[in-house]
Amino acid sequence: MPLDETNRRLIALLRENARMPVATLAAILGLSRATVQNRIDRLVHDGVITGFTVALRREAEPDAVCAIMLIQVEGEKTEHIYKALRGFPEAVAIHTTNGRWDFVVELRTPDLETFDRVLRRIRELKGISSSETSLLLSSNRR
After folding, report:
1. What tens digit of pLDDT does each residue of 84-117 get?
2. Are 68 and 122 in contact (CB under 8 A)?
3. Which terminus has fewer CB within 10 Å in the chain: N or C?
4. What is the DSSP string of 114-141?
């Protein structure tokens, strides 16, 4: 299913609140409830929407340690490193990029001790040639 303007608007609404009732989505989009449900089902079936998630307020996890880790990979090890990073539940997002760094990884741990342990385990992965990590001190998410 191509991403027409209606699908893009639907996805934007779901990004804002994935639990928004289909009837509410339909009213906003000016479509029938059945049409909206069919579009959602089709987007999921076609793999455009790969899942739904929970977004927490920062205050919900006040002691969480958040960081951005930049990773440079040796040679042809990109796929190996990507698969290994996906095995870390603390890696809440993994982005590929261009330039000096091959990956930008968002890390979240409950405390500094766990953060240190996870950081060490990631840096020990065979194929990582360099990394740089910055703790996030404050955030303003939309």
Report:
1. 999 998 998 999 999 999 999 999 998 999 999 9
2. no
3. C
4. HHHHHHHHHHTSTTEEEEEEEE------
Would you say how long the chain is, in residues?
142
CA dist., res. 11 & res. 6, Å (int): 9
Q: How far apart are the first and last CA of the chain?
A: 28
Residue whose structure tokens are 């340690």? 65
CA distance 78 to 58: 32
Report the alpha-carbon distance of residue 27 to residue 5 in Å, rounded: 16
- CA-angle at 85, arms to 140 and 60, nearest 5°: 35
- Tell me the residue type at 140: N
Separation CA 69–CA 82 (nearest Å): 13
